[in-house]
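User: Protein folding is very new to me. Would you mind checking the protein record under this note? It all follows right here:
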Amino acid sequence: MNLSLRLFFALAALVLLYALPALAPFFYIFIGTQILILGLFAASFNLVFGYTGMLSFGHAAFYGMGAYATAMLLQSLQWPLLACLLVSFVAGLVLALIIGFFCVRLDEVYFAMLTLAFGMMVFGVAHQWRSVTNGSDGISGFSVGSLGLGLDLTLGNPAVYYRVVLVIVVLAGLALHRICNSSFGLILRAIRQNPERVAFCGLNIRLYRLAAFTIAGGFAGLAGGLMAPFLRIASPELAHWSTSAEPVLMTILGGSGYFLGPFLGAGLFVLLETWITSLTQSWMLFLGIILALMVMFFRRGVLGTVLDAIQARQRRRQP
């Protein structure tokens, strides 16, 4: 598929997504907003896992940090949303830098366990520090006022907030895409494939891993900052280890190492969860079975398997 055709499909998809509030009822607008935010959350994790080869079980710590930053600023200072999101991005960035400084020294399962430990520490602070985080009740009761930049938008309207989230996620996605396809991103892929050879070339692997981990934390914080106004609450559950499992599953489901894989995985995950919960109370059992089957039969994720099939068909057609 040539570049012009890709741009055409991308623009067509964006136009369709932007027009969703005019085409679908409010229920699907809520679903679309959730998919976009979780897609950004999973895409930030994909920078660490799919491109750098580091499996983090504490990614929700940055997500929860961003949510709390936005909720606190909206509740206490009534800042414009864009200013709150900027703080959420920086908060996730700084927290990831601190945690990553200790974690990137280790590899494989030790790295995963250490990120899990730090993630549960962040959850414990959010759950126990009641004077700041309001404990298990979380921070709620805040309202979303202005967007900022002099734009007069009614952010309490689900359709308006959906379009704001769409624009922010697209811009963040373009930034992530640029990072992944830069020379920095190519080095990350090389580290995932053969870290010893990269180190032999004279590159500081720990520094590159720390940079990837920090950038991913910033975008996870941004996703959390978008989720807090959507849920109207920032609670400790957003930083729990079970929340860290969601981007892992979404990335593997969509296709790790593929830029659009996490977004596709987020869409499949949310739609399957919504569909199954409408049919049965034992939704976790059936959702687990379906996701397990999809992971087993789509070894490279849904997107990766489809692209592999297309490439294999093209090769067969060549003389």
